[in-house]
Amino acid sequence: MAIVAQSSKFSTYGRPVLAWGIGLLFFFPIFWMVVTSFKTDADAVKPEHLIFFSPTLDNYLNMTDNYDYWRFARNSIITAVSATIFTLFVGVPAAYAMAFNPSRATKDVLMWMLSTKMLPAAAVLYPMIFLAKGIGLYDTHILIITVLSLINLPIAIWMLFTYFKEIPKDIIEAGKMDGVNTWGEIKEILIPLAWGGIASTALLVFIFCWNEAYWTVRLTTIDAATLSKLIEGNRAPEGLFFGRLSAVSTAAVGPIVILGWFCQKQLVQGLTFGAVK
After folding, report:
1. Among candidate residues 212, 186, 184, the one with its CA nearest the CA of residue 84
2. What pLDDT digit, counting tens, does each position of 108-147 carry?
3. Where does the record place the ABC transmembrane type-1 domain (predicted)?
4. Most buried among 52, 72, 193, 203, by the most CB within 10 A?
5. What distance in Å separates the CA atoms of residue 57 and residue 38, rounded to the nearest whole number?
6. In 3D, which of 152, 141, 127 has the Cα closest to residue 211?
7. Cα torsion for 127, 129, 133, 136, to the nearest 10°?
8. Separation of alpha carbons 185 and 173, rounded Å
9. How far apart are CA 258 and CA 254, in angstroms?
10. 143-178 per-position pLDDT tens digit
11. Within 13 A of 204's CA, how many CA atoms are on the CB side?
12. DSSP class per residue in 87-149
C-alpha cells in the first residue's frame, strides 16, 4: 500500500515537476539568446554583465538598417512556402498510390526513400555546387526550393502514407464505382478526409525548410540568401559578434517558435500519428 501511495504521489507531483524541468532546460538556450540580443557585443562577453546590464535595441536597429534583414526574411518565406507546396504537390499523389495501390515493392521503395535521409550531406555538396553552377542555377530560388523539396520529400511521403492508410479503402472504391477518376479521388475524397494529416505534414515540412542551414548557406551568396546566411555572416576574423548574432538569430527563430507554439497540437499529432494502435 505504501509503495502504491508513493507511486500515486509521484504521478501527481513528480511527473509535472520533471516535465517542467525538462521543458525549461530545453527552453533556456532560446531564453538566453533573446537576453543576449539586448546586450552590446562588448557586454555579451563580459562576465560582470552576465545578468545585470543596460538593455539596448542597437542590435535590432543595426540588423534592419545595415544588414537588409527584410530581404533575407523574404527569401526565407519564398523558399520555405514554395518548397512546402511543391513537396505536397509531389508527396500527396505518391503517398496515395502507395497506400491504395500498393505493390510488392512498396515497402522497399518507402525504406529506400527513408534511407536517403541517412546520406551525409557533405558527400554530395561539391557535385551539387558544380552541377548548379554548370546549369546557371547557383544562388537562385529555384535551386533552393528544389533542394529543400527533395530532402523533405521522403519524410512527407512517409507521414502522408501513414495518414492515408487509416482511410477505409472502401471509400476510394466507392468513388471509382461512381466514375471518379484518379485526380477526382485525390481532390474530392482523399484531401477532405485526410486534411488534418496533410496540414500537419505541411507544417512540419515548412519548419524543416525554414530551419535548413547547411544547403541554404552553401548554395547561395546574395540573391537567394536566407536568414541562415545572414546568421552565418555575423562572423569575422576577430571572432563572433554575440550581440548582433543573438539579435539576428532571435529574429530568425522567433516566427517559427511562435508558429510551433500555436500549432503544437498538430505538430505532436504529426510526429506521433500511427505510433500507437
Report:
1. 212
2. 888 888 888 888 888 888 899 999 999 999 999 999 999 9
3. 73-263
4. 72
5. 6
6. 152
7. 100
8. 9
9. 6
10. 999 999 999 999 999 989 988 888 888 887 787 777
11. 26
12. HHHHHHHHHHHHHHS--TTHHHHHHHHHHGGGS-GGGGHHHHHHHHHHTT-TT-HHHHHHHHH
Written as nine digits, the cell of 15 is 511527473
CATH number of 68-271: 1.10.3720.10
Q: Specify the pTM.
A: 0.84
Give the closest residue to 156 by CA, choosing from 206, 104, 219: 206
Helix (H) or strand (E) holding 240: strand 239-240
Structural domain boundaries in the chain: 2-59, 68-271
Q: What is the structure's pLDDT at 183?
A: 83
Q: Sign (positive/negative) of CA torsion 65, 68, 72, 74?
A: positive
Alpha-carbon gap, residue 96 to 163, rounded angstroms: 10
C-alpha cell at 62: 543595426
Query: Is the separation of the CB atoms in 197 and 273 below 8 Å?
Result: yes
Alpha-carbon span 44 to 37, nearest angstrom: 9
Bridge partners of residue 236, in order along the sequence: 239
